[in-house]
Specification:
This protein is of the alpha+beta class. Helix content is 41%, strand content 15%. The protein has twelve helices and eight strands. The strands form two sheets. A four-stranded antiparallel β-sheet has the order 1-2-4-3. Strand 3 and strand 4 (181-188) form a beta hairpin. The radius of gyration is 28 Å and the shape is extended.
Length: 296
């Protein structure tokens, strides 16, 4: 049996619990001084090959384990907490009140019911969410999810930065398994109301560009940048000098908003049943530079 070099006690395995509680050192500190023999766990079952009998045995054992006590429950419906929650509510006890007040003062809990600050970042985010985003309604909160192609890593990083800047909270970014896609996800209350975008399926919903965006060219350009980064495509065929910069979507109100915005910026768009596009070389190049399309 291995013997701890610090206290000379025998163990089957010298683990982190003993080292931290008895000697206030980590496994890495201990092994750097005394080596790895007899320290930690000899086998990490998760890293074993799936055909290994030890892995199969461990996987089978998971089926017999009890699930988390809170699975499928809330504090109002769980039989062990319902009475306690009712008592706290009846007596007006709020055991998180002090922490909540401090968290609001130092900004840990954002002021989520206040309107979002009008900015270029917000204008861009509204356009991007209208094209590639969805807002989900949950019993206690709302979720914002933006799907982006993995071939545009610059756009993914930029979107993460914008979401964090607008909501003062870092979103979760992850690769979608089996797909060339990343999602940028954030959970917070009143997302839909503060963005001015309805939650759920928006295929037939109507949208009007906020006046604060149309009244400022800088905001309007960033709004259009978000729209075209989401649903825009640029194709140039030099042999035939063919230019096509289009926004494609089946929502009629979005197509109308894009057409109106392009006209406000001085362009002459062509309108199709499911697309609005620029076809003149000078206008395509000008608009591309104006909204900094795919420039990150």
């Amino acid at each position: 049996m291995p013997i701890c070099k610090l206290c000379r006690t025998s163990f089957e395995i010298i683990n982190n619990t003993h080292l931290a509680s008895a000697h206030r050192v980590s496994i890495s500190e201990y092994t750097s001084k005394f080596g790895i023999k007899g320290v930690g766990f000899p086998v990490n079952v998760v890293k074993l090959p799936k055909g290994d009998p030890r892995y199969t045995k461990w996987l089978r054992s998971l089926k017999d384990r009890n699930t988390a006590w809170s699975r499928g429950y809330t504090k109002e419906t769980h039989p062990g907490l319902a009475k306690m929650a009712a008592t706290f509510k009846e007596r007006g006890i709020d055991n998180f009140k002090k922490w909540r007040e401090e968290a609001r003062k130092n900004g840990t809990i954002p002021k989520i019911h206040e309107p979002l600050k009008q900015s270029s970042d917000l204008a861009f985010l509204i356009g991007l969410v209208l094209g590639d985003g969805n807002i989900y309604k949950f019993p206690r909160t709302e979720g914002l999810r933006i799907a982006l192609a993995s071939k545009y890593p610059g756009l993914i990083d930029y979107t993460k930065k914008v979401v964090r800047q607008v909501f003062r909270k870092s979103p979760n970014v992850r690769k979608v398994k089996g797909s060339a896609c990343y999602t940028v996800t954030l959970y917070q209350n009143s997302i839909s109301n503060r963005l001015g975008i309805p939650n759920g399926n928006r295929n037939k919903s109507k949208f009007e560009i906020p006046e604060w965006i149309t009244a400022d060219k800088k905001y309007l350009c960033n709004f259009m940048r978000g729209m075209f980064e989401a649903e825009g495509s640029l194709s140039i065929h030099l042999p035939t000098c063919t230019y096509n910069f289009q926004f494609a979507n089946r929502n009629k109100s979005l197509l109308k908003s894009v057409r109106k915005s392009l006209e406000l910026l001085g362009y002459h768009p062509e309108v199709r049943p499911v697309a609005v596009r620029l076809r003149k070389k000078a206008e395509v190049e000008s608009f591309r530079q104006l909204i900094k399309f795919r420039m990150y």
